[in-house]
Amino acid sequence: MTQKTFIAAFAFVLSLAGCATAPPPQKPALNDAFYYEKALDLLKARNFVEAVPAFEELREKFPLSPYAVLAELRLGEAHYQQDEFVEASHYFENFRRLHPSNPQVPYSIYMTGMCHYQQILSADRDQTFAEAAVEQFQQLVELYPRSPYAGPALCKIAEAKKRLAEHEFFVGSFYLRTKNYAGAIERFNNALRRYPHHIEQDRVLLMIAEATQKSGDDLRARIILEYLIKNYPDSPYAQQAKARLSAPAVSAASKKNEGGEVNSGK
């Protein structure tokens, strides 16, 4: 092979190499941060249907990642935003149980309380959710009083306790209507004893006096009415109490028991 022929052949080989398809650039490795941001974007866009499996995928592929820990909270939020409070509560409670030293624990307790709070029923129905909400919020305030969630928790405690007080009053009123006077008095007293700052005390006192009078304990009813008038002189219920005091049953009972005799109603 002459030198000229060799050079031509070499050039031909080089031209073939130049025409070969270049290998595709390699994609960067998808790390835990990538999966977390992808799922978080879905959550922020309120695309909860896709956000939930996206966070689950992150937890499955990177179980030891700190992003997997945060994913538990985000899963709770995704379910919460869909009014799936049982599922949401599961994730928030698990976060607290599995990561007790995490700085997000106060938030997880608050959100657990909110899951219960959002399920509180009307005053005429069972108040299990109200009681559970109060329990969670009080834990938060006691354990993390300086948390930014402590203030909102106190507000929710007040609202939940108001509903609990209303429930006691509702049941007491029902017992009064059905002539279960002992049960009515017990429920009204429960409202005053457990939730004194979350119910109209003068209104409850008037109802206790009515139930007490109807139970046959007229003297005690008079004492309650006089207490109501003395301590709540400007209350509209004080005016009703005065009217009850002048009613024949109470007046007669007062005269009957002059001299210190107490009518126990038994």
The number of helical segments is: 13
Percent of residues in helices: over 70%
- Point out poorly predicted stretches: 6-20, 251-266
Helix and strand element order? HHHHHHHHHHHHH
The 3D shape can be described as elongated
Q: What's the total count of β strands?
A: 0
The average pLDDT is 88
Distance between the termini: 133 Å
Class computed from helices, strands and strand pairing: mainly alpha
What integer value in Å does the Rg equal? Answer: 35 Å
Layout: helices, strands, pairs:
Elements: H1 3-19, H2 32-44, H3 48-61, H4 66-81, H5 85-98, H6 105-117, H7 128-143, H8 150-177, H9 181-194, H10 201-214, H11 218-231, H12 236-245, H13 248-256
Helix pairs in contact: 2-3, 2-4, 3-4, 4-5, 5-6, 6-7, 6-8, 7-8, 8-9, 9-10, 10-11, 11-12, 11-13
Descriptive account of the structure:
With 266 residues, the chain is mainly alpha-helical. It contains 13 helices and no strands. The radius of gyration is 35 Å and the shape is elongated.
What can be said about this structure in brief?
This protein has 266 residues and is mostly helical.
Tags for this entry?
266 residues; mainly alpha; 0% strand
